[in-house]
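dumping this here before i forget
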Amino acid sequence: MSVSMVSRWWEERSAPQRFDLYTRGTLYSMLAAEPLLALLVASSSEDLGSGAALAVFVGLATAHAVLGLVVVRGGVEWYLGRGSWPYRWTVVLLVVTVCAAASAVWAFGWEPPSEPGVISGAVATQFAVIMLCGFTVGALTPRLDSPRLALLALVLGGGAAVVGLLSDWPQPSAVGTGLAGVFAYLGGWSAFRASIWMLGIVWELDRSRQVQADLAVAEERLRFARDLHDILGRNLSVIAVKSELAAALSRRGRDEAGDEMMAVRDIAQESLREVRDVVRGYREADLTTELAGARSVLRSAGVSTRVVGEVDQLPPDVQAVLGWVAREGTTNVLRHSSASTCVITVARLDGSVTLTMENDGVRAPSGAAGSGLSGLAERLGELGGSLTADRIDGGRFRLAARVPSEVTS
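structure:
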């Protein structure tokens, strides 16, 4: 895979996806460092057991790291609501934690330091136990809202502290080891838990952004449906009543039946005109209103939006088509990007009007033009205008519409 392909793949990731990769990469790399720490402890201790004991300890520490990766991965998916908790792997991880701690005692022994500043077998053993407990607590953090698992993690961390305090070392060393056990618990919990908690918040914000976009579309549909109901509901009721009356008069041979049917025709024609007016008003949106709505919707979705330029004294056709551009562009920003900024510019130059929407956080490839943009291009083409949609440097997207400023319908 070439560097350009990797770069393109990375640029197409959304902000939540990138943060997800950052978080998982950080947690996985911390757990992957456990075998290296085990080798460091073994190489720094002055009291070493047999080669078999050291091999068992390093092997169990490696297995402990792999199981921690499996539990963290499943735990993150569970925390995000995408899967179930890996209970079996959790049990295996706890068993391996105990076995690895026992192998540390076998490999390094329990002799106190012969002189200050020397890493004896006891120091290596307790450091290994603290390391194992800290990584186990870290692997369990996605589920530490559960009282049982929180108590279990507390026992692991507190157990490491008690082991240090009950040793026959000089009191300062014993207290230091006990505090190190407490910090192993707090560090494993806070570092992992904070990262996973922030990851959940980021994905929740992304879902909220999508809900905001869907609500904006639903609100527009409801408004259009309400307008049609208000216009057609009364007229269709009148048409139904007059049609029944005309049918009854016709069966009786009354001449008034023809008059009633003519009245039905007039009401139907009036309804048709009113529906056309509603549709025309929907299609020919005021540009000032559309820009204000775009700014409001984007800001409510967390996108810092700025509108530059004046739209006064533009012909109705120009207002209508550019209003559609603003409407479609806003929808694309909400649905197809993870934008944090958007700048909308309206400029008049050389007998034409240009509306440009530029945002960051683009995810779609540059050639992925949807049906909405194709429809806009056709509308602009009917008025002698044009539409361009391109990715630019820095992972940004620019939608630009140009139309003559003196168009007549």
